[in-house]
Amino acid sequence: MLENLLNSISDNPAYLAVTIVLITMITYSVIKKLFKLVTLGIALFIIYCAYLLLTNQPLPNMDEIKIQLENSEEKVKGDIKTQLELGKEKITDVIEDSVLDPLKEKTETIKSNLDALQ
Questions:
Q1: d(Cα 106, Cα 108) in Å, to the nearest integer?
Q2: What is the pTM of this model?
């Protein structure tokens, strides 16, 4: 289905032109929004630095920020690992309770039925 669509777009010059125009418009709008977002971020950073300077507070030290980010990264990685292990244990428990136990019961009944037939 997707191949048919791509073939029809590439075969017909009118469809190709419309597709190129749409892709150009979408790309332009995304770049425009990103530019506004970056401009807003820079403006907020400048306002924050001006506030710190006007209140005679020290500007943040980049080395301290880097150390704090590294520490929080290690903490988040550890938290994610523990949550994944807990989730894995819960999933195995659920699978054992909902799938393996009924299968074991059914195999036992089948074995008992086969033994009864012999």
A1: 5
A2: 0.43
